[in-house]
Amino acid sequence: MPATLRKTYACLPPTVQGMPIVIGGDPKGKNFLYTSGNNVIIRNLEDPSDSDIYSQHSYPTNVAQYSPSGFYIASGDNSGKVRIWDTVNKEHILKSEFQPISGAIKDIAWTSDSQKIAAVGAGRDKFGHVFTYDSGNTAGVIEFHSKVINSVDISKTRPFRLATGCEDKTIGFYHGVPFKFNKTNQSHTSFVQAVRFSPDGTKCVSAGSDKMVLILDGKTGEELGQLGNPAHNGGVYAVSWSGDSKKLLTVSGDKTAKIWNMETLTMETEFVFGKDKEHMQVGCLWQGDTLITVSLTGFINYLDPANPSTPKRIVMGHNKPITAMTLNLERDTIYTASSEGRICYWDAATGENGLMKGKGHSSQVQHMLIVGDSLITCGVDDVIKFSSTTANEYGQDIKVDSQPQMISAVDRNLTIVACTNEIVVLRDGRIVYIEKVNYEPTSVSLHPGKSLVAVGAKDHKVHIFELSGDTLREERTLEHREMVTDVKFSPDGAWLAACDGIRLVRLYELPTYEEKSKDNWCFHTAKVTCLAWSPDSRHIASGSLDTGIGIWSVENVRKTLLIKQAHPMNKVNAVAWLDDNTLASVGQGSNLRIWDIVHEG
Predict the structure, then answer these.
(1) Where are the beta strands (DSSP E) in 26-142?
(2) Which residues touch 3 (CB under 8 Å, ≥6 apart)?
(3) Which residues are CB-contacts of 433 (< 8 A; sequence separation ≥ 6)?
(4) Measured between alpha carbons, how far is 491 from 410 in angstroms, rounded to an integer?
(5) pLDDT band per the 50, 70, 90 thresholds, residue 518
(6) Where are the WD repeats (predicted)?
């Protein structure tokens, strides 16, 4: 195959303050899963860099749960659809699709025989439904709730019991199958966020925004008591049982997680994550000997009960669209930035990652690049930063008069920044020249010889400037039929590539700027968003709004390779070559992907 996906470094779960997220566990103990955008993310519990992504929902997803057999996953989205798909085949073949309710699915539960599914959430006429996984036939009625149902669970032992937790502050208890209403518990004083039966079926617990964790009899639904007084000092958003039903993990907005002894109803271990809002805990899973929680940042914490003060491991990354990417080829490290200003660095081979330290951008990072040991970034906050890749720490700030769009540099001594109203020249991190323009630049590229600057703009032109000393002088323009979205000089300085909103990638030969591609490079089906040259200057990679990646050959302009749906359901925001045969790509879906490229002909 000309292009093979080597690795996907998956996004983190998206989070919202005050709202729980559901983390699903693999009955075989190997994987865990969660949702992000239109995707379901499956990650290896032992090696979370090993991941798989299911991208067949047409609407944003909220929950996914393995069947007890492990052969299927049921996932629910904002439209009220539940898709049941297999875990055996790489293609995740769809078994069936149903719409049990008319609004967003919030939680899903399977019966232990993997035959029936309960789905709950928002709706108009009802807030939940139970159905068979293959035919969709009704297997019970969920009723007597007046608001959104946040959580549902079914006991693993017979006779089956079903519990629901609702925003009307009640717990519903049902007998089945078919499931019929039995009773309501009204002890909570705020939203019920989670209900979960113990694996042995003897107990059911409910957690709420009122800081309470109630304990119910798993067979009768009778209230047996509660944990703590209350269990936490903030809302409790998720709970997870140990496999032997003797302990319970709870997480809270009070920035703690706790392990409870469910025989003595006492707290055994408390994990304190910090004092800032970002340390709120909104999801958890206890699977085998592994305990994980999810912070408000989306970070996944691996807990160590023997050392509760420090997680064994913290999986970092992005849960917002990745807007920029650059490479440190000397260290085989990838730097990515997202729409909220977070910058993360990744070991390209292992996926191990971390965050830049210090005060970063306050909003979206527009572009970034590395020269030497400096990371240069620009953001919507009108700031250009020069930071250290040695210490991975933010550094010097430079404020500009209008929003910077893109940066180009050959070394730290000279940096060119395209802003919405001007082109800025910097020497050694200081502004030395500003060229005001009457068009809106979108992109910029500095020639390796440092004498030419190409600026792509919304006026459908590429503006070519001569750089003399610190001064820019426009010498020619190249006409496009739509706004120019990116421009890049080749590393050897012999070529200029430009792309635009009309799906074209164009190749110009220097010094004449004769077009060599002659409109042949028009295989994308939507706007081209980004370009990157291979280190040997023989190939160009492009990313597009059509979710695909194009590979274009300078030596044979009629030879093209298209990676369709490189980032399914998400536009590609940046591409970069790790070497002449390895490409990295990022997109709106917050995932980082590594591709092996075989050049043919």
Answers:
(1) 31-36, 39-44, 51-54, 61-66, 72-77, 82-86, 94-98, 105-110, 116-121, 128-132, 138-141
(2) 549, 551, 561, 563, 595, 596, 597, 598
(3) 424, 425, 470, 471, 472
(4) 10
(5) confident
(6) 54-95, 185-226, 229-270, 315-356, 524-562
What is the DSSP track for 70-97? SSEEEEEETTS-EEEEESSSTT--EEEE
Contact indicator for 25, 287 with CB cutoff of 8 Å: yes
CA dist 291 and 356 (Å) reads: 26
Instruction: Collapse the DSSP code of 333 into the 3-class scheme (helix H, G, I; strand E, B; otherwise coil) and give the result.
Output: strand
- Other CB atoms closer than 10 Å to residue 250's CB: what's the count? 26
The answer to whether residues 387 and 375 touch, using CB atoms and an 8 Å cutoff, is yes
Dihedral sign, Cα of residue 238, residue 242, residue 245, residue 249: negative
Fill in the amino acid letter for 154: I
- Does the pLDDT of residue 519 top 90, yes or no? no
Q: Are 13 and 53 in contact (CB under 8 A)?
A: no
For the chain, the average pLDDT equals 96
| Structure token digits, residue 570 | 């998400």
What's the Cα-to-Cα distance from 21 to each of 15, 49, 59, 77, 335, rounded to whole Å?
7, 21, 17, 13, 27
Question: Can you say whether residue 341 is alpha, beta or left, with left for phi > 0 and alpha for psi between -120 and 50 degrees?
Answer: left
Predicted confidence band at 601 (pLDDT cuts at 50, 70, 90)?
A: low
Structural domains of the chain sorted by starting position, each given as residue range(s) with its CATH number in brackets: 3-315 (2.130.10.10), 363-597 (2.130.10.10)
What CA–CA distance (Å, rounded) separates 461 from 405? 16
Half-sphere exposure of residue 119: CA atoms within 13 angstroms, side-chain side: 33
| Arithmetic mean of pLDDT, 134-159 | 96
- Which pLDDT does position 269 carry in this prediction? 98
* Integer Cα distance of 111 and 184 in angstroms: 21
**Cα–Cα dist 147/213, whole Å:** 20
pTM above 0.90, yes or no: yes
Radius of gyration of the chain (CA): 27
